[in-house]
Task: inverse folding
């Protein structure tokens, strides 16, 4: 016996309605047992957990941003100079990334 699409939808709708009523009853039983859940007080960690909004990162003021910018400009200038000199401590770290064609040529 095969069912048409409309018959399948009707049965699925009946099953969903029944499951919805079961969930409503279960929810009512849980909120009767734990009333703080209805108020939104128990969202996983408990009421004493620190809020994420309290731990915000501080932003830099314009003077701090300028100082960081100048420091990083000096840092990268030193890196470029060391690389142009053909080595140095900054340029000698690791091999870096090679292209596949360069890798095949080396083998």
Result:
């Amino acid at each position: 016996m095969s069912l048409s699409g409309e018959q399948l939808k009707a049965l699925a709708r009946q099953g969903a309605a029944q499951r919805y009523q079961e969930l409503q009853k279960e929810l009512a039983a849980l909120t009767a047992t734990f009333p703080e859940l209805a108020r939104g007080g128990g969202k996983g960690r408990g009421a004493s957990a620190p809020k994420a909004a309290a731990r915000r990162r501080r932003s830099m003021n314009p003077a701090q941003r300028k100082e960081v910018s100048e420091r990083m400009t000096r840092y990268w200038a030193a890196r470029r100079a060391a690389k142009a000199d053909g080595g140095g401590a900054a340029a000698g770290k690791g091999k870096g990334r090679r292209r596949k064609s360069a890798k095949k040529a080396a083998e």
User: Anything to note?
Assistant: The chain has five helices and no strands. Helices lie at 5-33, 35-38, 62-84, 88-91, 100-106.
